[in-house]
Amino acid sequence: MRPNWDEFYGSAGRAVSAVAKLGGQAALHCYLTPTAKDVIDARKTAEGFVVRDSVTIENISFYYEHGLARPKFWRPTSQLSPLQVKDDLVLRYGMLESTAVVNADYAVFDPQNVDMPESFHHNGSTANHLALVLNRYEARALLRAAESLPLDQVAQQLAQQERAEVVVIKCGPQGALVWHSGKATQVPAYETTKVWKIGSGDQFAANFAYAWMEERRDPVEAADRASRATAFYCQHLGFPTAAELDNYKPDPILVSGDYKNGVRRKVYLAGPFFTLGELWVVDQARRSLLDMGLDVFSPYHDVGPGDAADVVPKDIEGIRDCDLLLAIMDGSDAGTVFEVGFAYRDGKPVIVYAENETAENCKMMVGSGCFMRQDFVSAIYKTGWVAASL
Questions:
Q1: CA-to-CA distance for 157 and 203, rounded, in angstroms?
Q2: Which residues neighbour 289 within 8 Å (Cβ) at sequence distance 6 or greater?
Q3: Scanning 102, 123, 273, 378, which has the fewest C-beta atoms within 10 Å of its C-beta?
Q4: Which superkingdom heads the taxonomic lineage of this protein's source (predicted)?
């Protein structure tokens, strides 16, 4: 909904575009309705990939209010027959409407399911060389591992359980952990000034798969290349060519020793909450920050409305007790402007989300070194990255 965006994609649809843009030859195996087929056929002609489709009459649809919202989705009322894919190099994604039985020499599998991730071999799939690409929640769920088990041990045990040659676990601001040949190596995540979140994980898996399977790069090098390609996608909402990726040198996200050791910073969430719309944005921001593993002090949620004599001291104490501040600035609410100034005076980092404000109204914040962001998702991610660096 915001930013406005409406396309036919899906994980494999993004992946085939990414591989084609890198110069690879790729075939997309998927289910398509007649309407979707018309769109994908136009893309395949423009981008140079092949489509091996199975016809269905029911589309899967996703609706996001913003890139960090929990999506609403519609799936077919019945499970479709499994796709059958046999080839030398296969990238397989988990699917809602069915599954894909893969027989490959090299395979990369991204299960795409936090609650009940599917084992690659469960449906009869085989591969001589298998790499798993998962986020940390999927990795623990697939292994049924406790939160206390270190990620390097999660990766090692997953490799044994799934008969995988490589396990890549994506770890947010800390980048990705790559387990290969009995060794765990960390590759960084890279910072961008904009974040287009939807499909970023698909971009990582596609670029890792191409670098590891097609170019036969070392898994650590392939994962680092995938991390940079993901940053390119988040910044530009596009897929890089091989030359663009070679020349793309974003800065790695800096992560402090405290963050690596499990310390989680507290964010003061400043913003007006006098209308239903304002309150909705504050609530969405709070939920998104909590989902990132941050502690949040929200005046609305933690203090509530009241007289100035009662509310203001508690809010000021909340700023003093926090490590950084995120301000929702549209409307230039006087209380929010005061909170930004107070946090600045205390030497705390300030991130400002201002989508519709004038340059004049933002002058003091820009001039005092606040981190300015013009869209909601980018502001939330910048807050998480700054917190990780403290």
A1: 26
A2: 267, 269, 296, 326, 380, 383, 384
A3: 123
A4: Bacteria
Which residues, other chains included, contact 119 with Cβ-Cβ below 8 Å and sequence gap of 6+? 142, 161, 162
The residues with which 106 forms a beta bridge, in sequence order, are 89, 129
What domains can you pick out in the chain, each with its CATH number? 11-247 (3.40.1190.20), 263-389 (3.40.50.450)
Q: Give helix 151-162 / helix 136-143 axis angle, nearest 10°.
A: 50
d(CA 246, CA 360): 39
User: Per DSSP, what are the bridge partners of residue 186?
Assistant: 177
What is the C-alpha to C-alpha distance for residues 203 and 227, in angstroms, rounded to an integer? 9
Tell me if 116 sits within 8 A of 96, measured CB to CB: no
Of 96, 37, 93, the C-alpha closest to 71 is 96
* pLDDT tens per residue across span 194-203: 999 999 999 9
pLDDT in tens, 27-86: 999 999 999 999 999 999 999 999 998 889 888 899 999 999 999 988 888 889 999 999
Please give the C-alpha separations between residue 190 and each of 94, 174, 199, 225, 292, in angstroms, as whole numbers.
26, 9, 16, 11, 17
For the chain, strand residue ranges (E) read 27-32, 50-55, 61-63, 72-74, 83-93, 100-110, 126-135, 166-170, 176-180, 183-187, 266-270, 295-297, 324-328, 350-353, 371-373
- CA 240 → CA 21, 80, 115, 175, 326, distances in Å? 7, 33, 31, 19, 32
Contacts of 357 (CB under 8 A, 6+ apart): 329, 330, 332
Task: Provide φ and ψ at 43, rounded to 5°.
Answer: -65, -40
CA distance 96 to 193: 32
Q: Are 74 and 56 in contact (CB under 8 A)?
A: no
> What residue has token string 């894909």?
100
Angle in degrees, CA 328, 334, 338, rounded to 5: 80
